[in-house]
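Quarterly update from the structural biology core.
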Amino acid sequence: MLYVFRMKAVLVLALALAGGCGNDTRLEDTSPDGSQPDDVDAAVLDGATAYAMNCARCHGVAGEGIATKGPQIRNPVRGFAKYTVRNGRTMQLGFETGMDAYPEEFLSEATLDAIMDFLAATPKPTTGPELFRRFCGNCHGANARGGRTGQDITEELDKVSEQVREGNGGTNYGSRTTYMPRWSTAELTDAEVGLIQAAIPTL
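Predicted structure, tokenized:
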């Protein structure tokens, strides 16, 4: 037996099978006879399993994204990613549906952290274009000329390093067109930022 699922884990993670992207279906956190399980708060799944059952339907088997369903979400910015998970997203952003909110009663903080750890462990690309796609493309578009934020960065190449390190908007995650995360050198090295900067004019 690979995993022993307690009742809450089964109910929480079955959510993906019941809906996932753009479906308001929610399951009650109770046992089949309607009673509250004694160990309802005890279960925390490993990140890979939790991701597979909650996220893969829209974001791909390893966070690589599905063209019509949802963007790639590897190496997530944890604060912003958690905000999106907890609040959902009504804007379709070019995909078939929005995204449901997952409050703690349906996805515990510990399990969400495990999912984030799983995604953060994805090996980083080694080329400028792929680094751009991983860390910048969701917001600035595949060609860096605006994307969902409307921020064309092909004309601001001299500011790329500064923006990566400083970000914009602090923790104002809800401001989709002005918020920009900041990355430390542990997350993106100076050499990797340089590769991204050099790649932008070629996209």
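The chain has two domains: 7-120, 128-202.
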